[in-house]
Design brief:
Helices cover 76% and strands 3% of the residues. It is an all-alpha fold. Strands 1-2 form a two-stranded antiparallel ribbon. Strand 1 and strand 2 (46-48) form a beta hairpin.
């Protein structure tokens, strides 16, 4: 089981690195990468720039590295939770601030769609975080929270791809493709890692129970 755990962590790390590196690759055309977008860009008849835009555009790339890091630190549970849950909270806050500016752009092709998507993402994020942490930190595994973060990351990449097709009508470049593939690989690996952890925990609990019965 330890070998499967290490393998899934390795795949998760590779997927996260691909997402992070995609930040510097052309996303829509040969010059528009995530790195360039973080410096400001024209969209919907307006211009988006500033710290909020920079943080929002950089967030997925950082999240790709944060998730495997939190899994690697799983034995230091408090630190792993502080890093991952704190980062997700910051990402949500930045996302809300960014959306409030984005939805005010004068010439969006589908403003109602993006407003609905924003509300759905925020509501789902808050609901899932509440469902996760209501058990208390002592019962919540870092791998379960990492699964949620990986799902959120994959959805953010999917929404970016949908935006490119709906708003700009452009074909996807390799930056969009590699980030989506990396996020998907990361998600699959984290889900597998969580199931390995869950099986190991159940197996150890069953072994301890059997040991207790035999001593009686």
């Amino acid at each position: 089981m330890k070998s499967l755990e290490r393998l899934s962590l390795l795949v998760a790390t590779a997927g996260g690195v691909v997402v992070a590196l995609s930040f510097f690759l052309p996303y829509e055309d040969l010059s528009w990468s995530g790195f360039r977008m973080a410096q400001g860009y024209a969209a919907g008849g307006g211009f988006l720039a500033g710290p909020v835009v920079a943080l929002f555009e950089t967030a997925p790339a950082i999240c790709g590295l944060i998730i495997p890091l939190s899994l690697a630190l799983r034995r230091r549970k408090a630190l792993a939770f502080f890093i991952l849950l704190g980062y997700l909270g910051c990402w949500l806050g930045v996302g809300v601030l960014y959306s409030s500016r984005f939805l005010q752009l004068p010439r969006l092709q589908a403003p109602s769609l993006w407003a609905l998507a924003t509300m759905a993402v925020v509501a789902t994020f808050v609901l899932l975080i509440w469902l996760l942490v209501r058990r208390s930190i002592s019962e919540l595994s870092i791998s379960r929270l990492a699964v949620f973060a990986a799902v959120f990351l994959a959805l953010s990449q999917l929404l970016s791809v949908i935006f490119i097709r709906v708003e700009d009508g452009l074909l996807l470049n390799y930056g969009a493709v590699t980030s989506t593939v990396g996020a998907t690989a990361l998600l699959v690996a984290v889900v597998f890692f969580h199931h390995v952890q869950k099986y190991c925990g159940n197996h150890d609990a069953g072994r301890d129970s059997n040991a207790g019965i035999s001593t009686m």
